[in-house]
User: What shape does this take?
Amino acid sequence: MIEITYFGHSSFLVKVAGKKILFDPFISPNEKASHIDISSISADYVLISHGHEDHVADAEKITKSSDAMLVSNYEIAVWFAGKGVKNYHPMNHGGSKVFDFGKVKYVNAVHSSTLPDGSSGGNPGGFVIQHEAGTFYYAGDTALTYDMKLIGEEYKIDFAFLPIGDNFTMGIHDAIKAADFVGTKKIIAMHYGTFPFIEIDLETAKKAAESAGKELIIINIGDSVSL
Assistant: This one.
């Protein structure tokens, strides 16, 4: 069992093998996460999928306050190094790295990636995390892509964090196909409802997932689940 806490948008804290991994922290600018005190959040690792503000906003502060290791593609890792983040590890597509909680592979995503000051964020990606109790996939912001089939061929994915908000990323129907491609029945919903562009009907999404034999897991901001 691993514990997952949702901080809104695409930000999750996942406790794996005694370590805390924070994904794409966009918390303090998010009005829907206004009850979350980021000073109370500590992490051992901060994983960044791409450079957009709604995925990196609190990364510098939390990384520095926690002395966490920031893991992302080369461009993003070096950009944060330039902002004084001393503990970082750069990756790129197809590469893997073993950390003390497990093995991370940086995989393809189809999206865009520009950092808040206009610097290049490199190419967007996602992460496959292998740990002592299993394997999960964090897709980041992405369209449905046939490359996801390769993940399903290589790994036994227990659950996947997938965007469902449509407009900028996959919607629920493509997320269901993505879950098929990677070989999981459990979808943890992300990247929905934060802005008007990505407001969706969650009940409709749940019914679509159920009809396809998938479990769509919706976590309230600030709540935790164990899987």
About this structure: The helical segments are 53-56, 59-66, 74-82, 148-154, 172-182, 202-211. The domain at 3-226 is CATH 3.60.15.10 (Metallo-beta-lactamase; Chain A).
